[in-house]
Amino acid sequence: MDVRPEVLMIALGAALVTVVPRVLPLVVLARLALPPGLRAWLAWVPIAVLAALTAAELGLQQGELALKWRELVAVLPVLAIAALTRSLIGAVIAGVAAMALLRV
Amino acid sequence: MTEGFAAGARAGLPVVLGYLSIGFAAGVVQRAAGLSVAEIALLSLVVYAGSAQFVAAGMIAAASPVAAVVLTVFFVNLRHLLLSAALAPALARVPAWKNALIGAQLTDETFVVAWSRVAGGGALSAAWMWGLNLAAYLAWAAATVAGAVLGEALGDSRRLGFDYALTAMFAALLALQIRAVPARGRALAVAIAAAGLALVLARVLPGNWFVIVATLVAATLGYALERWTSAPKS
Predict the structure, then answer these.
(1) Which of residues 175-214 of B touch A (CB under 8 A)?
(2) Residue A24 buriedness (CB in 10 A; 0-12 / 13-18 / 19+)
């Protein structure tokens, strides 16, 4: 089980370009007193990024629009459980169970 | 300290569940692309980024140049800039070196778990973040290696629906976030804008840029709506 030299270089290079965007804002911005406007803007980022990622999971197949009916049906119990019980793990388990049933 | 660590690890349970399955699939895919088990373990441990590892495996299989693979991974993972920045105010009291370690293991999924704690009025500590991060990191590493070793023998792991765990988590967290925001109409508008933009932009922008651009535009929309509708208080 060898590691080829080019894969080692890819791993190290990819690690570097991945860790910098992960670390830099946290280290720099956490030390600054951010202007209230920027903080108010940043507070919208989580909902926006979650909606974009969810939409991609539910509506995209290899970058193209796709009607993924199983994913769309299985998301209904997820949203219902999340809205009614506020339980994240409960909602996730409901989604996994729904998907398993839909694939039978 | 230890209590924070254990609580963080417990909060990471949905992420662990998702990573065990997606990681397994990632291990199978990377093995099928010709990577050795040692190479897969190396990528999981030092890069630790699901979508980037899927993309890299495909490019390595196609004998792409090292620089091209690294550049692609950079663009795929650039969205972490926004997540890291959004988390910064909640970790302002944590020393920089600890924030560096916390940030190094930041993922979409651990971010949303941490953020939902902030949105629910909880505080983030370094120990809590490490508990969350380490649980997710170990699950990812173990699952990708298991997928690489066992994948061919076990057949289709999608049967049990575990691959849907991360989608379910994104959707559930989105619902919880919208619920938690006092201005629910505004939150819904931001979510719909981001989702719509993502679906439209995915066809025209390369790689994962649609996530970044959709997030930037939709967050700006939320900020603008806030300014216009509640100008006196802001």
Answers:
(1) 175-179, 181, 187, 190-199, 202-203, 210-211, 214
(2) middle
Dist CA A83 CA B184 (whole Å): 13
Report if pTM > 0.80: no
**What would the pLDDT profile of B146-182 be if each residue is shown by its tens digit?**
999 987 676 665 666 767 877 887 898 889 888 878 8
B26 to chain A, minimum CA–CA distance in Å? 15
Return the higher-pLDDT residue of B148 and B55: B148
Q: Read off the amino acid at residue B216.
A: L
Give the count of beta carbons closer than 10 Å to the beta carbon of residue A82: 27
Half-sphere exposure of B213 (CA within 13 A, CB side): 16
Structure tokens at B96: 């920089």
CB-CB contact of B4 with B134 (8 Å): no
- Please provide the average confidence, as pLDDT, over all residues in chain B: 87
